[in-house]
Design brief:
Blueprint (H helix, E strand, L loop, with lengths): L6 E2 H8 L3 H9 L7 E2 L5 E3 L1 H13 L6 H15 L5 H41 L11
Protein name: MerR family transcriptional regulator
GO molecular function: DNA binding; DNA-binding transcription factor activity
Keywords: Coiled coil, DNA-binding
């Protein structure tokens, strides 16, 4: 680890696009703890830590729980260690399928939101620009 560059939390927050508070929270719940600390106690993160935080950030909109995120990180660590058994790969495949399903759900929600926005644009284009809009009953 001595050859690896270490980054302070502010730099990590800017790089990943997470707040300092969120990064500290992920440390508190032992999701992504810093790899070290300065003599003054400032958190230090490796490039690998930054990638873990990016992955967590990507899992968040897919509504992964902290426990699910932790499990995915642990499974990836096991796979990276080079000694995984088939159950590790099977569990990762299960989480990949879950992520894909949640992506489909998000796409459907987005399509609905875009359809509503288009409808409102059309309606706004049909109404006169002056005077209050009448309510239909």
């Amino acid at each position: 680890m001595s050859d690896e560059q270490m980054h302070q939390i502010g730099e990590v927050a800017d790089t990943v696009g997470l707040s300092l508070r969120t990064i500290r929270h992920y440390e508190e719940v032992d999701l992504v703890p810093p790899s070290g600390r300065t003599a003054g106690g400032f958190r230090l993160y490796t490039d690998d830590d930054i990638e873990r935080l990016r992955l967590v950030k990507h899992m968040k909109p897919l509504d992964f729980s902290l426990d699910e995120m932790r499990t995915v990180l642990e499974l990836r660590d096991t796979l990276a260690d080079g000694t995984p058994d088939d159950s590790v790969r099977e569990r990762l495949v299960m989480y990949a399928a879950l992520a894909e399903e949640r992506c489909r759900n998000l796409r459907a929600q987005l399509e609905n939101a875009e359809a509503m926005a288009a409808m409102l644009r059309r309606e706004a284009g049909r109404r006169p620009a002056t005077g209050p809009a009448r309510r239909r009953r």
